[in-house]
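Same chain as my last thread, 234 residues:
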Amino acid sequence: MAIRSDGLLTKKRILQSCVRLFLENGYRRTTMQQILREAQVSSSSFQNLFHSKDGVLLELVNFMFENQFGVARNVAGAVLPPVYIYAAETALQITLTELNENLREIYLEAYTRQHLLDYIQQATAKELYQIFGPYQPALTEQDFYELELGTAGLMRAYMVHPCTEDFTLERKLTRFVTLALRGYKVPEEELQRVLAFLRGLDIRTIAREVMEELFRQLALRYNFSPDGLLPPES
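reply #2:
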């Protein structure tokens, strides 16, 4: 029991250190030496728990994507159809990458590294089947997994291209949601209602609140303080 307890405490220290280092320095610029020094753990202890820096990223990606749809449901409200949940979740995800360049890098790493992308696509396909199945009842969950290969590519493309004075966040969200919902055969009239719903949201404020809640939940899970982890105001 003592070994298990020590291992859990070590894991908490590693995750606490990595969250802060990834946000402060960026994922790629954070070195293993920095992680080991910050978490005060040995290389062998780290490798036993995570094997590599990618292992920590997988843990954080799992947590983020497990919680995003739940947060989006709260934003959309229980009375709105599931398609609004999808629109809110994807809009929030894109908006989060505009809050901080290091945060953008974390998401892009998740959408680039194959084992992380596989997790995202498999998990998202289950949600897509529930959300868009009524629009295309002949399709199976496997069909929606194959469609998600395309929408994941769209998501990464919109994340990697920062907003500009001409290509505003609002335009970016409209472009992505329009392409995605048309791909899932959402009727045009309903698509326009979803876009109107998104335009009525203060998406930047909501995204920061989402970050605060996600970090609060992460802190509760791994028993550390989230103070100082949020990216600065844009």
